[in-house]
Amino acid sequence: MKQSEIKNLSAAELQVKLSELKRMYADLKTAHTISPIENPLQIRTIRRAVARVASELTKRELQ
Length: 63
Description:
The protein has three helices and no strands. It is mostly helical and 63 residues long.
């Protein structure tokens, strides 16, 4: 998810997206622990997307 896409979402949509991404991240981590997943770079991209969404939420709260 790109930063430009994140800026266009409302705060409520960001909260929903953050919870979805965190759930996806946890599922991928669990699946990778049990047996190696086909593309382990997915874990990194989702982790970074979580950070982007969380940063945008924090930025909006401080304004």
